[in-house]
Amino acid sequence: xxxxxxxxxxxxxxxELKHNDDDAIKLHVMQCQLCANNLKALGMITKTQRQYSPxxxxxxNILDYYHQSLLTKSTFFDTFKAFIALHRRVFALATIIIxxxxxxxxxxxxxxxxxxxxxxxxxxxxxxxIKSDTIKEGRRITIPETKWAMLxxxxxxxxxxxxxxxxVIMRSHYSKNAGTKKFNYSLEKGAINIKTNHHHTSxxxxxxxxxxxxxxxGTEFYINVSPEGTHIYIVEGxxxxxxxxxxxxxxTEVGKLxxxxxxxxxxxxxxxxxxxxxxxxxxxxxxxxxxDEDLGSSSILTSDVNNNETTTYQxxxxxxxxxxxxxSALNSQDKEDKGNAKEMRNDMKHDExxxxxxxxxxxxx
Amino acid sequence: MIERETLIxxxxxxxxxxxxxCYHLTGVxxxxxxxxxxxxxxxxEYSKKNVIxxxxxxxxxxxxxxxLAINYLKKNDKIFYLDxxxxxxxxxxxxxxIANEEMNNEILVAIQNLDVKTRSIFILKRDNNYxxxxxxxxxxxxERTVRRKLQQALSHIMVHLKNKGFYDIL
Lengths: 365, 170
Description:
By secondary structure, chain A is of the alpha+beta class.
């Protein structure tokens, strides 16, 4: 005999079954003792229990508390809290709007660094330098083997770029928020001399090569990136040198040559002039003067690392033609920066020219 | 803040059923009274900062009662039985026999052996005649959970009665 399940019996107890089903259950229960027992037990389980009433003192206690609450004076803080609680949605919305506004102001303030342009000078056939143009961050400078050039950043960092140099100005900007100037360069190939006239705590610059990360601390040094590794010769000051592969960092000493390869950093006590690649740089740069009036012709290639745009700068026979050619050679991106850079460039030009002329004259004597 | 007359009106409307709910949940008369009193004190405090809605006050009182009763049970972690003065047989002619009285007591024991949540659902369903939807709202759970817990409660009580040898039930 098939027995009736609990849910059907419960429905029977509650009178929720249809008339025919109700009769069938009744008939089954009369014949089946097990289902009769179940029905009885379920009836007792689900029967509403006796209802009790709480003692009257409970209401009396509640009303006492109510009257005490009325008598207690609410402080200003309580009133303020109640007001906030009543209008909490409005306050929450206002808080979100204000927070979003502050965040927007902060974001717009922080994400506005000013680009600092570099000034590129090209050497002509007679060894004189002619200012080519301003170069902004994100540009690659490629010097042909037979040419050489000079790059000046912030009227302070002077790069002497020998033939065969391939370098990218990764970053060159001033952060208003932090009050710092940051310069990052990637030297991929070739030999250069870097000289910093002053050391400022607000100015940070780094040169990366395939083997090393070089962080000068106000100094003069030479770098040569070749297939064998990166070579650095320290003339004065200090440099923090990090091997990219091993992450080992050392502080350099004056008058030493450091060679960074995949596995290690080696240092040698060596005379500056016993290194041919340094001699090559010095030979080209020591007997030259910077002027806008010198004649000659040379070409230097710069290209945008993102857009692959290429610009070739040609030094010309006279200043008028030079200026026209340079204007046409500038790509649209450079033009945008030209106005901003003009003032800085003029200042840099005069100071830089004076310093370089003095040094050249002294050495020549 | 809530008006005095409104407070008394709410008390007259809901105090009895909330008291019985607390009583069957805790099994102790004095505890049920304390919980009931605290429920209405909470209502007074709540009314200082919020507008009392007559449609939701019942749900508020039940939720408060449920939480307070659970707190009481946590503090008094023991198995207990309803007070001796209960006379369940008086409302049922069948239960006038000694056997039925014993069975009734075993049902109460089985109910008290349920976990607090299941017990609360079972009492709300049986004694307060709430629908599954209403129970779900009061206890902030799903209707599916209410249905499942009710089935569990029923099975548990039936097995308990079978183990006690009352009937040869399923």
